[in-house]
Amino acid sequence: MKKEKMIGAMALAFTVMMIFSSMTVFAAPPQPMTRQGIANLDGVAVGDGMEISAWADGVKYVANNTYYGDGTYKVNVPGNDPDVTTEKDGADDNELVVYWMSDGTNWYIANEVDNFVSASDILGDLNFTSASQPYMAKIWEIVPEPSSGNDFIWIAAPDTWNASAYSIKTDNWTGMSLNGVAQYKSNTAGTWSAWYVDLGGNQRLNFSGDIELVWADPNGNVAGGNAVVIDRVEYGSINTEPANTIMPNAVKVSGAGKALKRAGTVSSPTDTENCSSDFSEVDADYPLLWTAQPVYNLWVEKDTVNGDAILHWDDAGSPPGGYNIYESTDPLAAWPWTALATGVNGTSYTHASAVSDANSHFYIVRATDGSTEGGNSSMAFVAKFDVVNNADKGDINWVSIPDEIFAAARDLNGDGKLSASDIVIDIEGGTGDGTNTKIDQIAYWDANGQTTGAVYSYTEDPFSGNGWGGTDFTITPGMAVSLQATSSFTWVTNGTDSGTNGYDIINNADKGDINWVSVPFTIKDMNGDGKITASDIVLQIEGGTGDGTNTKIDQIAYWDANGQTTGAVYSYTEDPFSGNGWGGTDFTITPGMAVSLQATSSFTWTPELVQDEVTQ
Question: What pTM does this model have?
Answer without folding.
Answer: 0.60
